[in-house]
Amino acid sequence: MPNTYTQLYVHVVFAVKGRQNAIPKHAKENLHRYITGIVQAREQKLMAVHCMPDHAHLFIGFTPDLALSDLVRDIKRATTLWMKEQQLVKPSFYWQEGFGAFSYSQSQINTIVQYVLNQEEHHRKRTFREEYIGFLQKFEVPYDEHYLFDFYDETADTKD
User: Fold this and answer.
1) Which residues, 6 or more positions from 81, have their beta carbon under 8 angstroms from its beta carbon?
2) What is the mean pLDDT of the chain?
3) Cα–Cα dist 50/1, whole Å
4) DSSP secondary-structure letter at 54?
5) pTM, to two decimals
6) Beta strand pairing call for 45-51 and 100-104
């Protein structure tokens, strides 16, 4: 789009369907590379990515000619198929419907990149549920408990 200048940075969070700890640790780096490829193929910039066993965090610099919901849909669809083809997850693996998206300014980029990359440390102190509801409250996003992600029992075993 000529004569259109933007700086749009969004932290996206989405979860595994079925209250599962489904993403194995040994597959994370390849999954991160695959997600990076999807985002770059859509001509957007992935600033940071980190997948936990039950959810994913992406920090994306994006352009206004692409709807964020379309990009997230493409990431979820492609990664689901790829992880099944690679036999990294059970055939019943899917991402839950919906996602959270929280915008940040350029001055916050380094802080959010570090936040995303340090997910394992954050989750030693708070659960995914606590983290996600914290985002909704911090950004004053109205929500209904009935429509939040299904959150698994965070003491459940992970597939390695």
Assistant:
1) none
2) 90
3) 31
4) S
5) 0.87
6) unpaired
